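Recap from last week: sequence in, structure out.
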Amino acid sequence: MASPMTVIEIRIELKKGVADPEGKNTMKTLESLGFQGISGVKTVKLFEVELDMSEAQAVEAGEEMCRKLLANPVIQNYRVTVR
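Predicted C-alpha cells:
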C-alpha cells in the first residue's frame, strides 16, 4: 500500500524588530502608485511541499527543512502546516 500524499505549507517571516527593506520599498512604491491607507507591508516566503508520508511525518520533515535550509532562526520565524 502506497504512503499517503501530504501537502505542507511552510511560512517564513522576519522576527519582530528585524528590518524588512523589501517590505518598506514595496510600501513606498504602492503609495507612489496612489494606494492609500497602507500602514505596513511585510515580506513573507511561502513554500508548498508535497511529501509521500503521513501528516505527522510531513510536519516533522518540514520543520527539519526549516532548521537545515529554509529559515535563519536568528532573524526568522517559521510555521509548518498541513494543507
